[in-house]
């Protein structure tokens, strides 16, 4: 691939991947948080990332392993951010307490709606 | 550009795209210079509100959860406010940090506030009010210290109206009374005021701490938009988490050919750092590398201890300790770019 064509290909790929990511249902109260990842763990029912700083007591962000495609994408982003020393941006719904079903405790954990990094 | 490098570039590009599609509620905040409360705040409703207006009570409790979501704030609900006891000076003492009165209950809030020794504000209508944290001791003798109308009265009460009054109770002042309001978006006489200090962020037209200015498209407390991004940031700063981490954004694994660029996350989110923070200190392996809100440096290959500290405007300290890795380009490709590129198919 030539240098000239590469940016266009990147743009197209980014657009497609971005659309896929945006297909995650957005909740009215969903919000973004910056996260310096300090730990990533995988469990039978979930994976989670622990951030250096909490917000409203929330320091863990999790994704259910039941949705294997989504969790693989999430895990790839988290691992990439850790390896590359990047700050994550995580979208979550503070009011959604359903993570308790996969061991994501209400007092310190929420489910990941979208995740990425850009700096 | 090598394939692995282009892979990393594509991944970053993708992530940037995800960030771009984020809700653009970029919209605030003025510290009222009236203190902050402890993170555990007791609230109660006066009169028979729990019996006569149970749905409204539940709605208010649901509304104020927005503050709990963004900061280290725990509202502890006492239910109906308990009867007064007596202070040593003979004045009444009402328990409950925030004691709320709402319309259509057994308490008529259009008459002077009950309570022996109470010197709280009183209006003959349902104009809402609240008070700063430092006013709490002065209003202990008052049956209530937060008056919340049902605005707009003819339909579901506004979310922002509740957040506005609780914003005062948490330490925020009126956004529209700043001296630096943006007059390019609004030029009505009552827009702008005398508040010239305590600016935690730039003026924020989306803040719940604004009044409504319909002709300017500013709905402020008369809306259901919820806390703006800068409202959230301000409350996050006012009520720090139990573990006070110096938050930053940037890249901590770089090539020797790269410049390390880290910056305060508060600054990145739009905080007015000249007011909210001070005494920034970035250290690399124990040596002071920067005393500003940003760190810009180039380093020889190696692994370094990164330290970041600062204080906030209330003197509280924040600390981060981590690692900086500086790699030769070839090693960076092997250890960082290539592994990330290999994950692209998963995306």
Task: Report on this structure.
The complex is a heterodimer of chains A (119) and B (347). Chain A has 2 helices and 6 strands, in the order αββββαββ. With 119 residues, chain A is an alpha+beta fold. Chain A has a single domain (26-116), classed as OB fold (Dihydrolipoamide Acetyltransferase, E2P), CATH 2.40.50. In chain A, strands 1-5-6-4-3-2 form a 6-stranded mixed sheet. The longest helix of chain A has 18 residues, at 5-22. Chain A is globular and about 30 Å long. The model of chain A is unreliable at 1-28 (pLDDT under 50). By secondary structure, chain B is of the alpha/beta class. Helices cover 24% and strands 21% of the residues of chain B. Classes of the chains: A alpha+beta (119), B alpha/beta (347). The interface between A and B is large, with 48 and 55 residues.
- Any low-confidence stretches of chain A, pLDDT <50, length ≥5? 1-28
The average pLDDT score of chain A comes to 82
Order of the strands making up the biggest sheet of chain B: 8-14-13-10-11
The CATH architecture of the largest domain in chain B can be named as: 3-Layer(aba) Sandwich
- Report the portion of residues of chain B in β strands: 15-25%
Low-confidence stretches of chain B: 11-27
CATH T-level fold name of chain A: OB fold (Dihydrolipoamide Acetyltransferase, E2P)
CATH class type of chain A: Mainly Beta
CATH superfamily of the largest domain in chain B: Collagenase (Catalytic Domain)
Secondary-structure element order of chain A, as H and E?
A: HEEEEHEE
Number of strands of chain A: 6
What best-fitting shape of chain A do the alpha-carbon axes yield?
Answer: globular
Mean pLDDT of chain B: 91
Helix proportion of residues of chain B, in percent?
Answer: 10-25%
The strand line-up of the biggest sheet of chain A is 1-5-6-4-3-2
What's the number of structural domains of chain B?
Answer: 2
Report the major sheet of chain A. 6 strands, mixed
Assembly state: heterodimer
Instruction: Report the sheet with the most strands of chain B, covering strand number, pairing sense and barrel closure.
Output: 5 strands, mixed
Any idea of the CATH topology of the largest domain in chain B? Collagenase (Catalytic Domain)
């Amino acid at each position: 691939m030539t240098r000239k064509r590469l940016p266009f290909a990147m743009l197209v790929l980014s657009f497609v991947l971005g659309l896929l990511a945006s297909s995650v249902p957005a909740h009215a109260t969903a919000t973004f948080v910056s996260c310096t990842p300090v730990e990533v763990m995988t469990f039978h029912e979930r994976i989670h990332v622990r951030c250096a700083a909490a917000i409203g007591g929330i320091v863990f962000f999790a994704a259910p392993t039941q949705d294997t495609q989504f969790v693989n994408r999430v895990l790839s982003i988290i691992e990439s951010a850790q390896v590359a020393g990047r700050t994550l941006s995580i979208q979550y719904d503070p009011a959604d307490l359903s993570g308790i079903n996969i061991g994501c405790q209400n007092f310190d954990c929420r489910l990941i709606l979208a995740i990425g990094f850009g700096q | 550009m090598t394939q692995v490098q282009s892979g990393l570039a594509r991944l970053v590009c993708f992530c940037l795209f995800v960030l771009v599609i984020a809700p653009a509620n970029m919209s605030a905040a003025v510290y009222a210079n009236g203190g902050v409360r402890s993170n555990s705040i007791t609230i109660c409703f006066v009169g028979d509100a729990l019996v006569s207006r149970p749905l409204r009570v539940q709605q208010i409790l649901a509304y104020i959860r927005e503050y709990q979501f963004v900061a280290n704030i725990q509202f502890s609900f006492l239910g109906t406010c308990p009867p007064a006891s007596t202070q040593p000076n003979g004045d009444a003492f009402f328990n409950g940090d925030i004691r709320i009165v709402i319309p259509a209950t057994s308490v008529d809030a259009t008459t002077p506030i009950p309570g022996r020794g109470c010197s709280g504000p009183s209006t003959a209508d349902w104009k809402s009010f609240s008070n700063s944290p430092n006013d709490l001791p002065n209003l202990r003798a008052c049956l209530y210290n937060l008056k919340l109308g049902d605005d707009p009265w003819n339909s579901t009460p506004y979310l922002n109206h509740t957040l506005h009054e609780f914003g005062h109770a948490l330490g925020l002042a009126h956004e529209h009374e700043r001296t630096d309001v943006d007059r390019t978006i609004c030029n009505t006489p009552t827009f702008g005021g005398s508040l010239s200090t305590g600016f935690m962020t730039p003026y924020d037209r989306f803040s719940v701490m604004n009044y409504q200015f319909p002709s300017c498209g500013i709905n402020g407390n008369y809306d259901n938009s919820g806390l703006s991004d800068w409202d959230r940031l301000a409350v996050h700063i006012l009520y720090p988490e139990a573990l006070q981490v110096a938050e930053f954004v940037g890249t901590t694994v770089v090539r020797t050919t790269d410049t390390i660029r880290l910056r305060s996350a508060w600054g990145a989110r739009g905080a007015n750092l000249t007011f909210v923070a001070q005494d920034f200190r970035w250290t690399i392996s124990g040596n002071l590398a920067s005393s500003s809100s940003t760190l810009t440096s180039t380093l020889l290959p190696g692994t370094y201890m990164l330290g970041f500290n600062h204080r906030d405007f209330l003197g509280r300290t924040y600390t981060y300790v981590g690692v900086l890795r500086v790699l030769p380009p070839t090693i960076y490709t092997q250890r960082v770019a290539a592994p990330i590129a290999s994950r692209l198919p998963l995306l």
